[in-house]
Design goal:
The protein is of the alpha/beta class. It has 2 domains: about 140 residues, Rossmann fold, CATH 3.40.50; about 170 residues, L-2-Hydroxyisocaproate Dehydrogenase, Chain A, domain 2. The strands form 4 sheets. The protein has a 6-stranded parallel beta sheet with strand order 3-2-1-4-5-6, with helices on both faces. Strands 7-10-11 form a 3-stranded antiparallel beta sheet. Strands 12-13-14 form a 3-stranded antiparallel beta sheet. Strand 5, helix 4 and strand 6 form a beta-alpha-beta unit. The termini are far apart. The model has no long low-confidence stretch (mean pLDDT about 95).
Length: about 325
């Protein structure tokens, strides 16, 4: 024992999303150790070799290796990117049954290894599979996190930045709800440089509310457009996962829109859904309740109901 605390991340699933996450994580120098696990062991070993060959160019010499589920025992964070991918014409919810079976095996093997850290789930439908991970693992809710609407929120900020010609880092806006077709924009809490978006539209005739609605449609349907063109989305979500990883390992107390278990917040109960939450070394410190207007409340309630109905139909049946 050296007394030096190291951070270990175990990645399960080295497909397009997982490999992109590993690449982004290494390039940002956030973790001390990164262990790659995949059913295709040769693929995982190939990724390890490829990443290590670039270590000389990285900002920090992350130790990268392939491993087994036994490596989860000492992991601070287990990131799950394994599962069936969304195909052209499929919604995220179409993947439920296939991925629930996969996740039951994965989570059981992780927990059997003695894991006691934080789960971060990226596989779709992410809200359903995060709930399943929480239920299968028996871990406290704050230590099971889904990527939620972090990418949708990033897309929203990017699109609003383009529209108002402002850097997206100076746009504060949220997409909440299901990471899917029932998600919603929170215009009432959106601002650009501290000025509420709705006030900017009132003051300047060159901006229109109808344009905002069009922006949201682009955000909501972005994955379909990308999948149609290149078969899958992976860069954006990988960078979002790295952002969550950094908030956890560096104990940031950052507010990120992730899939969190609600227990009374927003008037909802026992559903994992995308909402702003404070993220630190313990996982989800608290859920931030936005002051939604009446329309937003109705749309959020509908989104939660979509997820609850999916859980009743698929998860409850699967666990009977």
């Amino acid at each position: 024992m050296t007394g030096v605390q190291t951070s270990r991340v175990v990645l399960i699933g080295t497909g397009s999303v997982g490999a992109s996450y590993a690449f982004a994580l290494m390039n940002q120098g956030i973790a001390d150790e990164l262990v790659l696990i995949d059913m295709n062991e040769e693929k995982a070993m190939g990724d390890v070799m490829d990443l290590n060959h670039g270590k000389v160019f990285a900002p920090y010499p992350t130790h990268v290796q392939s491993g087994t589920y036994e490596d989860c025992r000492t992991a601070d964070l287990v990131v799950i990117c394994a599962g069936a991918n969304q195909k052209p014409g499929e919604t995220r919810l179409d993947l439920v049954d296939k991925n629930l079976k996969i996740f039951k095996q994965i989570v059981s093997r992780v927990m059997d290894a003695g894991f006691n850290g934080i789960f971060l789930v990226a596989t779709n439908p992410v809200d359903i599979l995060t709930y399943a991970t929480w239920a299968y693992s028996g871990l406290p809710k704050e230590r099971v996190i889904g990527s939620g609407t972090i990418l949708d929120t990033a897309r929203f900020r990017y699109e609003l930045g383009e529209y108002f010609q402002v850097a997206p880092t100076n746009v504060h806006a949220y997409i909440i709800g299901e990471h899917g077709d029932s998600e919603l924009p929170v215009y009432s809490a959106a601002d650009v440089g501290g000025v509420p978006v709705l006030k900017r539209i009132e003051r300047d005739a060159s901006y229109k509310k109808e344009d905002l609605d069009e922006i949201f449609i682009h955000v909501r349907d972005a994955a379909y457009e990308i999948i149609k063109r290149k078969g899958a989305t992976f860069y954006g979500i990988a960078m979002g996962l790295v952002r969550i990883t950094k908030a956890i390992l560096h104990n940031e107390n950052s507010v990120l829109t992730v899939s969190s278990l609600l227990e009374g917040e927003y008037g909802e109960d026992r559903v994992y859904i995308g909402v702003p939450a404070v993220i630190n070394r313990e996982g989800i410190r608290e859920v931030i309740e936005l002051d939604l207007n009446e329309e937003e409340k109705k749309r959020f309630s509908h989104s939660a109901e979509v997820l609850k109905n999916t859980l009743k139909l698929h998860f409850d049946e699967e666990n009977e």
